[in-house]
Amino acid sequence: MPSLPMLAREFYERPPDTVARALLGKVLVRRHEGQRLAGRIVEVEAYQGLDDPAAHAFAGKTPRNAVLFGPPGVAYVYFIYGMHYCLNISCEPEGQAGCVLLRALEPLEGLETMAELRGLDADAPPRLLASGPGRLCQALGITRTTHNGIDVTSRRAGLHVEDDGTAPEKIEALPRVGIRKAAERPLRFVIAGNRFVSR
DNA sequence: GGAGCGATGTCCT
DNA sequence: GGACATCGCTCCG
Questions:
Q1: For residue A2, what pLDDT is reported?
Q2: Whole-number pLDDT of residue A4
């Protein structure tokens, strides 16, 4: 099965809101025990650097958020609320913090495995598989120890983003979810009308 | 179908 | 010690 063009480092070497919009419609691919798990990115959020109070990078570089200050195109995975992981991809040139949070996928390949990883029946509604940042990580088997700091512009890493040539018809900009600071900024982007957007 | 809420680990103050 | 970029369950309409 031929692979589609993969997004390269330059794609991510731009401001987070630009990268966030550009990621909508692209396909996130994870190689899990030899099997391809894939889903179309339908919901993202942009987190800026030192001028974004809601961003992990806001308070400066720490061991936890160090990935954000490194090169673009690297996975930043963190653990939240004692039970969930969230997947981000770092943006901006090296030394400058910023990232895009992946919030929801429209499942395309490997749905049965995703259901299994989620602890659901094989015939569970696809909407329950990866609509929401915690669900997305669980459906793809992504954890901090296995994926934080890996390069998503390398095929060998087992996690990358492909471009199948389709573009969203319409993108909607909304406030970000679940934050208190800078909550009014419209930095959440969704494919308008897509059923797999969270909530 | 929607509001309310508890669970639970890690990081930083 | 408190905050936290969430989820799924309960209860109510």
A1: 60
A2: 86
Nucleotide nearest to A87 (CA to C1'): C5
Nearest residue for B6, CA–C1': A81
A181 neighbors A52 (Cβ within 8 angstroms): no
What is the CA A52 to C1' C1 distance in angstroms?
A: 25
Please determine, for residue A1, whether its predicted confidence score (pLDDT) is greater than 80. no
Its CATH architecture, for the domain A9-191, is Roll (3.10)
Q: In the structure, what pLDDT confidence band is assigned to residue A3 with cuts at 50, 70 and 90? A: confident
Round and report the angstrom distance from CA (A124) to C1' (B10): 32
Q: What is the pTM of this model?
A: 0.96
Strands A171-174 and A27-32: unpaired
Enumerate the domain spans of chain A: 9-191
